[in-house]
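Supplementary Note 3. Input sequence used for the single-chain structure prediction.
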Amino acid sequence: MDLKDRYDVLIVGSGPAGAGAARALHESGLDALIVERSKLPRYKMCSGILFPSSRKFIADHFGELPEDMLCSPKMIKGNRIKPTNDSPIMDTPFSLFDPGKDLEEEGLNVWRSDVDLWLCSQSDAAIIDECRFNSYRKEGQEYIINLNRSGKDIEVRTRYIVGADGTLSRVRRTAFPGFDEKVGQIHCYEEYYTGDIDLEPEWLYIFMDRSVTGYFATVSFKEDKIIVVTGVNQRESVKPYFKTFREHLEKWHGMVVSKTTSRHGIVLTDMSARRNYCLGKENILLTGEAGGFLRGGEGITSSLASGTAAGNAILESFNTGKLAIHSFNELAAEELSNCEKVHADLEAATGFNVFMRD
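The predicted structure, written as discrete structure tokens, is reproduced below.
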């Protein structure tokens, strides 16, 4: 697909935040473009569990999720949390940490790469993959965007920018130089295994003992794979903690690894936990984890909700001539409140805020 010289809205990132913005603009008459730096469908390190709030949001705004995007076990009962190695496992249904009304009891286990692309396709936005956002400059009422596609720098014009490009958002770093200096990072690492473990696959397991993880560690399941994750603060090394956590699972939960099938890493931030949000300025809006939206460790719902708020703010701005950031601040307030509620509920249940462990 060839790029045009101008779009009404440029959305950077093809995850749920970008998809939410694009869906809100669907059939509005605005010409929207989603740019994604990776080749689609792209892998996203995530449990791939749609919490009940995500299930409802998708059903209400996008329609019924195709069955072939689910993996076994299809239904996830909730979280099993182990605050310390000596404490019993806490069975916690999603309802304890998933604010919303009229929600299902169970979550859905999905392939994130397929779901993200499907969500984006439920809009009339153009989608360009392997296209990286580099920078922007302002010229009058428009932004001149520098993109790199297939090794070639190109420029397009737009009136609105939606930064939906994740925790290390280049849009945020370009619009707010120096902001990231006060953002704490949580480095996470995962491995996929075939093998066995003495844990029921219909749950997401969360371990928090400081001896086995810097922040938190998880075990989840997809088809015949066991997925093991741990996260540490940026001053520590994740690999030694991961080795310790794997040995803990082998000793206490009978894990036997037949084969390691893949390895991945990702960076989270403490923006939501510390209420250190960055929603944007003027007609540049930051959504999902780029803006700091995160419900504890669950980001899909926040990304969908904040992305949708950004799209609706752009529509209001386009119709009224007011800067989009003013509407976005109002429309995103409910989701920010949900994020803060989940962090508070998690802290009440565990005795600490897991994203602020030093």
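The radius of gyration is 20 Å. The helical segments are 16-24, 52-61, 112-121, 170-175, 238-252, 300-320, 324-331, 333-350.
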